[in-house]
Amino acid sequence: MKKKIVWILLGLILLFIIVTGYNTITIKSKQPSPHPANTTLNQEEAVEHLAKAITFKTVSYQDRSQFDFKEFDKFTAFLQTSYPTVFQKLDFEKINGYGLVFKWKGSDSSKNPVGLTSHYDVVPVLKDTESKWDQDPFSGAVVDGKIWGRGTLDDKIGVIGILQAVDYLLANDFTPDRDLYFMFGFDEEIGGDEGANKIVSTLKKRGIMFDYVLDEGGAIVENMVPGVKQPVGVVGISEKGSATAQLTIEGSGGHSSQPKDHTNIGRIASAIVKLEDTQFKGELRGPGKDLFEYVAPEMSFGMKYVFANKMIFKPVIEKILLQKPASAALIRTTIAPTIFQSGEQYNALPERATAIINLRLMPGDSLQDVKKFIVDAIDDDDIKVTVTGSEASKVSSIDGWPFKSIQQAARNIYTNAVVAPYLMFAGSDAKHYDQIAKNTYRFLPVQITSEDLNRMHGTNEHISIENYLNAIKFYVEILKEASRMETVD
Fold first, then answer.
1. Which residues face 103 on adjacent strands?
2. Do 158 and 209 sit in the same domain of this protein?
């Protein structure tokens, strides 16, 4: 009897090995074969244009009264001077004063248009950090093969890169087979309510519906995914929602010499500890799951084995992903206490304590879900909980021609990169375009490092000339792919 059980167990183990091994060796790559681009650019002109664009202080401030719109006017005038052919051949209009929209008429009006969008506003340079920059943040200095200044990564590179690509294609007598729109916002860094949102409402009234809109977002990053040696280009197919939870408790204060066992500050602090100890459940689903399905075929054998059999190893994968903040954010709604307000006098118990928590919501998690989770986790009826904000954007398709066109264009420029969908953690103007686009994607076509990510809103923002030129070439390719690809899914 024991021998029979042993043989059954050995048989099951053998079957397990055969099935999981088969799954591993038969997993197919989802990467299209690259068609290396043959685009010859006027490098001197391209660099000059981006460098000059950086010198305009088109800064977004939370307090809109601080906007210096003279700088925004100068920037628009600079575009007209730098790209006369684009302004002559394309329809151009301003929406809400500073939103810039170009329309390139295609040969087939029956097809839905494609849109590319970026923004030309930038974040402020933090006071007293100017001296830490190697080059002045608004100099546009070109030093050692790099272009320096605010907007080189976020996101004047997108605006100038797109216009350079359009100018190149016009010079080479290219005519798109569908209408193409190029839409540039001016307040993306503070939410895009007056820029992208107004552009969207205007186009919506005209009945415009895009097959897809491409905005900034993911990029091509090295050492991003364990087991993948190649750089990985991540294309955001959704962005997490952003919500603010406020926890407030009010009660008697009194002298600090006679405190209760549990004070207002203590109870709010305890609530935060409970939230951080509980956390939202991590689950490999949606865009996070899609990411690993695209990169799994390119992994080393051990990692490929695990992800090729993720139905078996899913709990293990989720546990591993939860160990690091960046990967944990990919599979769960995150909790980040950011502000604590209470007390004015060292020897007086405060009558009120408040904590502000920023949450980034997974697709499928509602504001109501978040509030219920918080209330249940803190388990304190005296603490008032309010939750405001936005839920995650819709998840765009990875099965149809729109995603495939972006993937192909990226592979044509970065032939060794693995291009995959992912979930974007930060916000972008793309969320506004969800109203008038079947799909919205988020991809900045440059190869960057983790240090570059910190520079985007920080000190010493810059881009290499090679990276910038590759971005232009990508935009050339994506505009060509919009005409090459079959639109029947």
1. 91, 181
2. yes
Which 3 state secondary structure label does DSSP give 99?
A: strand
Query: Is residue 486's pLDDT more than 60?
Result: no
- Assigned domain for 355 exists: yes
Q: CB burial class (10 A; 0-12, 13-18, 19+) of residue 329? A: buried
DSSP states of 267-336 as a string? HHHHHHHHHHHH-PPP---HHHHHHHHHHGGGS-HHHHHHHHTHHHHHHHHHHHHTTSHHHHTTTS-EEE
380 is catalytic: no
Instruction: Given the residues 188, 290, 365, 429, select the one marked as catalytic.
Output: 188
Q: How many CB atoms lie within 10 A of CB 2?
A: 6
Residue 245 near residue 387 (C-beta atoms within 8 A)? yes
Per the structure, the count of domains in the chain is 2
Residues 86 and 196 in one domain: yes
pLDDT at residue 223 in the model: 83
Q: Catalytic residue at 188?
A: yes
Per-residue pLDDT reduced to its tens digit, 179-204 = 999 999 999 999 999 999 999 999 99
Domain co-membership, 219 together with 309: no
pLDDT tens per residue, range 321-350:
898 888 899 999 999 999 999 888 888 788
Q: Domain span at residue 273?
A: 239-390
Residues 81 and 207 in one domain: yes
Dig out the tokens for 299 from the structure: 């992994």
In angstroms, rounded to a whole number, what is the distance separating the alpha carbons of residues 297 and 379?
45
Instruction: Count how many residues are written for the chain.
Output: 489
pLDDT band at 309 (very low <50, low <70, confident <90, very high): confident
Beta strand pairing call for 114-119 and 212-221: parallel
User: Given the DSSP bridges, would you call strands 418-424 and 232-239 parallel, antiparallel or unpaired?
Assistant: parallel
Residues 244, 277: Cα–Cα separation, whole Å: 19
Neighbours of 89 (CB within 10 A): 15
Q: Could you tell me if 129 and 216 lie in one domain?
A: yes
